[in-house]
Design goal:
By secondary structure, this protein is an alpha/beta fold. The chain has 2 domains: about 1-120, Rossmann fold; about 130-275, Dihydrodipicolinate Reductase, domain 2, CATH 3.30.360. About 35% of the residues lie in helices and about 30% in strands. It is built from 10 helices and 14 strands. The strands form 2 sheets. The chain has an 8-stranded mixed beta sheet, covered by helices on one side. It has a 6-stranded parallel beta sheet with strand order 3-2-1-4-5-6, with helices on both faces. Strand 9 and strand 10 (about 220-225) form a beta hairpin. The N and C termini lie far apart (about 40 Å).
C-alpha cells in the first residue's frame, strides 16, 4: 500500500482524488495541501481525505505520506518536486514535468541521489491504448509508417495558467505535449532527425503551434496545438498498406484500421474503455514501481521526459518564448 498526498487542490486534483479513493487496495490518499488552508479543508472534506494542510511544507513533513502527487501549474513543479524529494518523498508530477530540460535534469539527479521514484504523469503514456496502437503498427497491418498527423485544440487561452508567461503558460507545454507524445510513441525507438515549427505569440505565450518532425527512417509527422479553438483531436498514422485513425489523441476513444484502397475500407475498429476514467493507469504504475523499489517508470522513463522537454525547449528558443523563471 502506497500512502499518497496531493499538492494543489484545483481541477486536476479533483479528477485524481476520486480515482485514488477508488484504488484503495493500492493507494491510501491520506492528505491534501494548498497554500490556502480553507481550500485544502474543503477539498479534503469533499473527497473524504483525513488531513488538510495550509502549506506544502506540512505535507512534506507528514511521515504517513510516501508519494506526493503534484497537481499545480507547471511553473511550480520544479520547486515542489525538489522540496518533496529532499524530504524523502516519491513523486508523480503532472505534465509538463518542468518548464525546461535543465530543471528536469536536476530533479532526476536528486531522485537518483535519494533513491526515490519520480515520474511524469502524462496519462496517454500509461493507457492501454498505447499498446493497442503499437501492436497494430508492429503487426504490419498498415505496412511501413510514413506519415503521422495529430492535432489538439481547446479554448483555454483565457485561463491564467495558459495566458500568463509567469505561470509557464502557452499551448505547447499544456496541450502541445499530447500530439507531440502521440507522434513519438507511434515512432517508438526511431530517432528524430529534424524538428521545426512556428507559433502565433500573444501576451508572451504561444497561442497556436505548428510542428513538423522528420524521423531517421524517413517517416514524418505534422502536428498542431491551439489554445484558441476546439479541434477534432484526431490522430492518424499512415502506412504503406493502410492507416490507423485515433479519435482523441488526448484520451483515445476509438482506434480504427483502414485499408490502403483509393476508397479506404474499414478493416477493424476498437472502442477504448477504462475501468475508472483513464487516470488509474499512471497511479497503478507508480504504486507498482514504488513497491518494487524502482526509481523510474518504464512507461515514462526519465530519458523520454527529457527528450520531450529538449524538443519543447528548442522550439521555444526558436520562437523567443521565455516562461516562469526564464523571464528573469
Amino acid at each position: 500500500m502506497v500512502r499518497a498526498g496531493i499538492i494543489g487542490c484545483g481541477n486536476i486534483a479533483g479528477v485524481l482524488a476520486p480515482v485514488m479513493k477508488a484504488l484503495s487496495d493500492r493507494i491510501d490518499l491520506v492528505a491534501a495541501a494548498s497554500r490556502d488552508v480553507q481550500k485544502a479543508e474543503d477539498f479534503a472534506s469533499r473527497f473524504g481525505i483525513r488531513k488538510a494542510y495550509g502549506s506544502y511544507e506540512e505535507l512534506y513533513e507528514d511521515e504517513e505520506v510516501d508519494l506526493v502527487y503534484v497537481a499545480t501549474p507547471h511553473s511550480h513543479h520544479y520547486s515542489i518536486m525538489k522540496d518533496a524529494l529532499t524530504h524523502g518523498k516519491h513523486v508523480l508530477c503532472e505534465k509538463a514535468f518542468c518548464v525546461n530540460a535543465s530543471q528536469a535534469e536536476e530533479i532526476f539527479a536528486l531522485a537518483r541521489e535519494k533513491n526515490l521514484y519520480v515520474a511524469e504523469a502524462i496519462w496517454t503514456r500509461y493507457m492501454p491504448s498505447r499498446k493497442m496502437i503499437n501492436d497494430i503498427i508492429a503487426s504490419g497491418k498498415i505496412g511501413k509508417v510514413r506519415t503521422i498527423t495529430a492535432n489538439l485544440g481547446y479554448k483555454i487561452l483565457h485561463k491564467p495558467r495558459i495566458a500568463k508567461p509567469e505561470l509557464a503558460g502557452g499551448a505547447l507545454l499544456d496541450i502541445g505535449v499530447y500530439p507531440l507524445n502521440f507522434a513519438l510513441m507511434a515512432r517508438e525507438g526511431v530517432p528524430v532527425s529534424e524538428m521545426r515549427g512556428s507559433c502565433i505569440e500573444t501576451g508572451g505565450v504561444d497561442a497556436r503551434d505548428m510542428i513538423e518532425i522528420s524521423f531517421a527512417d524517413g517517416s514524418q509527422a505534422v502536428i498542431f496545438a491551439d489554445a484558441e479553438v476546439v479541434s477534432d483531436r484526431m490522430g492518424k498514422i499512415y502506412g504503406t498498406d493502410g492507416y490507423i485513425e485515433v479519435v482523441n489523441v488526448n484520451n483515445p476513444e476509438r482506434i480504427s484500421v483502414y485499408s490502403s484502397d483509393r476508397n479506404p475500407v474499414l478493416l477493424e475498429s476498437h472502442e477504448v474503455t477504462h475501468e475508472i476514467n483513464g487516470y488509474e493507469y499512471e497511479l497503478i504504475s507508480a504504486a507498482e514501481c514504488i513497491e518494487k523499489g524502482l526509481t523510474e517508470d518504464p512507461n515514462m522513463p526519465h530519458s523520454e521526459t527529457l527528450r520531450v522537454l529538449r524538443y519543447t525547449d528548442a522550439l521555444r528558443e526558436l520562437w523567443g518564448i521565455r516562461l516562469a523563471d526564464e523571464i528573469k
